[in-house]
Amino acid sequence: MEIQFILNKKQVSTEVGPDAVLLDVLRALGCKSVKCGCETANCGLCTVWIDGKSRLSCSVLAAGVAGHEITTMEGVEKEAARFGEFLAAEGAEQCGFCSPGFIMNVLAMFRELADPTVEEIKEYLAGNLCRCTGYMGQLRAIRKYMAAEKTSAEGVRS
């Protein structure tokens, strides 16, 4: 069946089978930031935004996204790169395999939660697994990124 949706702010049309998962369709469309890590919806590597909300693309049937807006890390490259600098500065970036899904969740959290506590951050990101780093560096990077973005936004309003 043919479906149409918006992918990273561009209208796309593609053929999908009735059992095709969004992860596979996005990769076929060139979105290589969307990765398969577990095939059980437990690792967070396949995180994308569907209509602005974080979702695991391995657990979404592609036919169900017809008419919706999908954002992958390719669609938020500038924001992702900026947060990536904070990860690197905290030594929280190692192999990078989990980074796209993790970054998509952090950016979604930044949009959804105004000033999250450490516990709220941990809860929000509980589904993102990283085999290389301890989570403390990632947590420091998130807190510093959010503080910097908040300061930047306040400077724009002044």
Describe this protein's structure.
- Helix 2 packs across helix 3 (99-112).
- The protein has 5 helices and 5 strands.
- It has helices at residues 22-28, 77-89, 99-112, 118-124, 135-157; strands spanning 2-7, 10-15, 47-50, 53-56, 69-71.
- 35% of the residues are buried.
- Strands 2-1-5-3-4 form a 5-stranded mixed sheet, with helices on one face.
Quick overview:
With 158 residues, this protein is an alpha+beta fold. The chain has helices at 22-28, 77-89, 99-112, 118-124, 135-157, and strands at 2-7, 10-15, 47-50, 53-56, 69-71.
Percentage of residues in strands: 5-15%
Major sheet attributes: 5 strands, mixed
- Given helix and strand content, the structural type is alpha+beta
**Order of neighbouring strands in the sheet with most strands:** 2-1-5-3-4
Q: How many angstroms separate the termini?
A: 51 Å
- The count of helical stretches stands at 5
State the assembly state of the protein chains. single chain
